[in-house]
Sequence to fold (329 residues):
Amino acid sequence: MSRGLRLIPIVLLLFLLSGLAWRLIKPADTAVPSQMVERQVPPFALPAALPGKPGLNAADLASGKPHLLNIFASWCIPCASEGKVLQELQRRGVTVDGIAIRDTPDALTAFLARNGDPYQRIGSDRQSDVQIALGSSGVPETFVVDAHGVIRRQYIGALNASNIPGVLRELEEIR
Amino acid sequence: MNRNSSSPKNPASSKYRIWVPAFAGLTILLGSPALADSNLPPAYWANRQLPNASQEAQAQALMEQLRCLVCQGQSIADSDAELAGDMRDLVRRRIAAGEKPSAIRSWLIQRYGTWISYRPTDEPAAWPLWLAPLALLLAGAWLIRGRIKLKGSR
Fold:
């Protein structure tokens, strides 16, 4: 065997080790983005999650003005921290609609009493059906939906205060 | 265990007496983030087989090829995550309603991309995967070509 060929295993080993080191330093992004962005919200109709608030269907999201569609749950810990941000957006005139995943009215009432209630409507998705139809892979997630019911952007994970200017700008652009 | 080794005078055993509960406490503390689950029971068809055996077999085969969004190394057939349970329920409901597994798979791919399916696609991104066995066979043949020639010529 030639000298060059004998080096192949060492080169392969170095290649493998550098690959492992690279992934340790920069872990892979595990978020699964929805393929529904830039597409129409799929047809759905969800019953009201609370007695005093209307449920949500696809037509409500194509009502002629942009919406934020927040996928959340009372049992989801990061969703609690997101409450303040959504309320601030609501104060600035943004319509926020919610889909509560696998939730009960009692737990949801307590959650909203604790963390504030920015929602105009909340649909109850007890089997994650609409969540799956939207290509959402967890809670919380937020979709920016334009006036015609087309999804324009997906935020995976809780929104924080630094997202507020960006969200407002996007809503302004699609108005 | 004899009396001597368990007596408090033994330095090794008194050391363990502190560390064992400390370790147990730490384990319990670190184990708590797994509680992020809802209070609702699993969806009806999440952990229940379809009465029609051939439909159940179709559903099972499909569920084993769909990737869980929460426990990303597992199929939805293997995962205990609630979202995986809800996806099993969706697959079984649609198969019971007469939908073809390939239609359900492409419906999910429309939502989550080819990521959701374990079955390799025929898109250009997967071509190296399909060509790898052929390339490796050729490389192997090239490596041993000298030996084959020697035996044949003798």
